[in-house]
Design brief:
Elements: E1 6-15, E2 24-32, E3 36-40, H1 47-55, E4 62-67, E5 70-71, H2 77-83, E6 85-88, H3 100-107, H4 113-121, H5 138-151, E7 156-160, H6 168-185, E8 188-192, H7 196-202, E9 205-210, E10 213-219, H8 220-225, H9 227-234, E11 277-284, E12 287-294, E13 306-312
Helix pairs in contact: 4-5, 5-6
Length: 318
């Protein structure tokens, strides 16, 4: 999709926060006209960071961001919005003290066009136009956030976790509106969504991020049927094993590990006090398994096994 037909082109994008290591590394993707592209991956995979880099809120360490073939290097977030990038963040970006109607007057400097466009996509908002955003339900707030973006008729619409805090049935009503808008207006949509199968149902293509790197890409239909790939990506593992690959041997049980002891890079440790049980999820070339240790941990797990360690306080444990 990269090329003249692409609304958005990312080429070798690496971006992070401050002077630390990049969160996203060497990411290349494209979004075409009238195309909905899902950006998938576990929490911390780099999805939100990618959207922030496209909006200009983060400066890339390497690579390029292009909108309609124009390099956006040095272009401010405000200027990018004027060029046609609409970004709906995960916190919705609305003002709780303003009414629904005031949001559209703010966006269009007093013009009623924005409100009329929004109400055409979300008729339920018309009856709520005099209500303050802080008094709306979660679904109504998300409706307002998306409607504001659609009213601008953007070239690129980016939605970050639009389903956050919403029931799947509500999400199922919002996503078709996005799909229909993209088709009718030639808008490219980059969709970050935790309800994977709902997202892939309206998407044309998808990209899967794992630990800041591109793990897979393909048509929405092919990704939706590859449950092993999606499970491995959302559980923090790498590329899933092919069928028939033997499972790796579990790591040896080591001596008790103090709460302040070091663990290998990438491990996540959370203590809840009291007597502990460690649950070790092992990801490796042969799939995954769960291993449980009471009051002790694997002292180290050597590659190619990656792992996460979580501490639990068991009810009734002595």
């Amino acid at each position: 999709m990269a090329g003249t037909d692409a609304v958005l082109d990312l080429d070798g994008l690496s971006v992070g926060y401050g002077r630390g290591a990049p969160v996203v590394r060497d990411l290349t993707l494209a979004v075409g006209q009238s195309e909905v592209v899902a950006l998938l991956g576990a929490n911390g995979a780099g999805k939100t960071t990618t959207l922030r880099a496209i909006s200009g809120l983060l400066k890339p360490a390497a690579g390029t961001v292009r909108l309609d073939s124009a390099d956006l290097a040095g272009v401010s977030p405000t200027a990018r919005a004027r060029l046609g990038i609409a970004h709906v963040p995960h916190d919705r970006g609305i003002f709780f003290g303003l009414t629904v109607a005031e949001h559209f007057r703010l966006d269009r400097a007093g013009s009623s066009d924005g409100a009329d466009t929004a109400f055409a996509h979300f008729p339920a908002l018309r009856e709520l136009r005099g209500r303050k955003a802080g008094l709306l339900s979660g679904g109504e707030q998300q409706m307002l956030a998306i409607a504001r973006a659609l009213a601008r008729e953007p070239r690129l619409l980016m939605l970050d976790e639009m389903s956050l805090g919403l029931a799947p049935v509500v999400v199922g009503r919002l996503l078709p509106v996005v799909r229909d808008f993209a088709t009718a207006n030639g808008t490219g949509v980059l969709l970050v969504e935790q309800h994977v199968h709902l997202a892939l149902r309206i998407a044309d293509r998808g990209y899967v991020l794992s630990h800041g790197e591109l793990a897979a890409s393909g048509t929405a239909a092919s990704l939706a049927t590859d449950s092993d790939l999606l499970a491995a990506s959302y559980l923090g593992g790498g590329t899933p094993a092919r069928r028939g690959t033997p499972r790796a041997t579990p790591p040896e049980e080591g001596a008790g590990l103090r709460q302040d002891a070091r663990v290998t890079a990438g491990s996540r440790v959370a203590g809840y006090g009291g007597r502990r049980v460690a649950r070790v999820f092992c990801r490796h070339a042969g799939g995954h398994r769960s291993i449980f240790y009471r009051d002790n941990f694997p002292e180290r797990i050597m590659p190619p096994v990656t792992h996460q360690i979580r501490l639990f306080r068991l009810r009734g444990a002595v």
